[in-house]
Task: structure prediction
Amino acid sequence: MSKVFAAIVVTLLATASPASAFDTAHHWEMTRNALMREGFNDESIRIVTLQNWLTDFYAAYDSTYLKPTIREGDRATVENAQWLHFDNLTTTKDVSQYWDTLVNSTAMQLYRVATSRKDDPLEILTILGVSLHAVQDFYTHSNWVADNGSTCKTDQFLAITWLDATRDRSIPTKRIHTGTYGPNSHGGADSHDQMNKDSIERDCWAEAYVLAYKATRQWVRAFGALVDKYDGTRDLWERCVRGPLVRGADSQTLTTGLDASRQLSLLTGKWQGGGMGGTNVGTLATTFYRFRDAVSTYKDAMVEGKVLAYFALKLRGPRPMVGPFPFAPPVFDPAPDDEHVFFLRVDQVTTTDLSSPSVLPHEENFFLNVTLTAETTDSTVYQQQFRTVTDFSNYGQRATPWRVVWFVPRTAAKVEARIEARNDGPSATVPTAPGASYEVAIYPNEPPKSLLFTYRFADLTCAIGLTGQPTSCNAVNRLTSEGKTIPRARIRFFVEKPTFRQGW
Result:
């Protein structure tokens, strides 16, 4: 590993860069969930997800130790990426002007593509991915969810987005502001470090996540309608939803980019909180340079297509953008109230394999792969996968509870969950290659080793396994499951039923 990359690793693990945002897993998961609900196919979702993350990739270069790795041609891109994270806004007026500029600069770019002969779904999806990064970051970087130092109740989620409040002229009288960093920050309660809700480790994370998800659906719907309005009869938005045709090298580049996103985020503790995810650092050094230097249709769409540069030009100021504009203002209707929310909490994963006297609870490097499936009354199947970071270790300390929030249509009666526990590193009982992981049994009726359960919305019960009886599984009645064969572990979990409030 090069000395430069070693310095990068140390710096990123020790400090938050100015580009700190919702952790990568959370951007991925809310974007996929919202776009699935809006009918997007997998290919389109993957493109929007990558373009969303590239905003963080380029912005992270602002670190002192990353700057030596910047290629000369990327310097403007690195500077441009700093403007898409909803930071350093100290008054309600600043926040309002940033929102107005983000809306109008997004609309202007989509209008330009929709009315041109270019007819490029990839450019539309790139504009969507970059703008959604900022939309989502507002809720984790601001005090919209809660004032500094206040505690959120995860059973009562705020249901009002900024777009709702602007439409209804109900922006609260309290000062709305975001965290500050760099020369603009004097530390303390208003700093980004204190205010952010980027990770599940942070207070108010769940409430910020829920609002960011709802705002994502609002944003996609409003700008889909704008593209349709000015597109004529070419069905450009429908082709964006169905997915542009990706073949050969472009398909591989998309997969490679998403793999790099996951690996680099795990290394820097920005996948889902602290922890490295068991990924080999040397491999990641190679991944970093290979991705930075690779030719990519998706990087070109963001950089050579001037999408990032246009956003930065307008957001840098003066704000807000001044019309007249050639398009009618986008209409941000409330996010549809047509969903159940499935809120899973895993508050403990402990080893029960005592073959080694050095093994203590939480000292194993556990992570969880979770697959959730729901089927609606019209037989539409929704499925999404989630992966935790290896944050249940903490070396004898109490592990950070892991949480997943998933929205499904209200016509789905239940969610079927499969939780697979895995462990990184060596084991006395399971030979593994360096950097590899192995499955740990958490289900008593093996096979399989993974835990299966069904959650029913009608009576708020869980049934473990294929034949288990429904039983209460809330915070008062938490359920446990333990494997029988070594290596094995015990998992404790429950499902919360949040409600939504319409005021602060």
In short: Residues 8-16, 356-363, 393-397 have pLDDT under 50 and may be disordered.
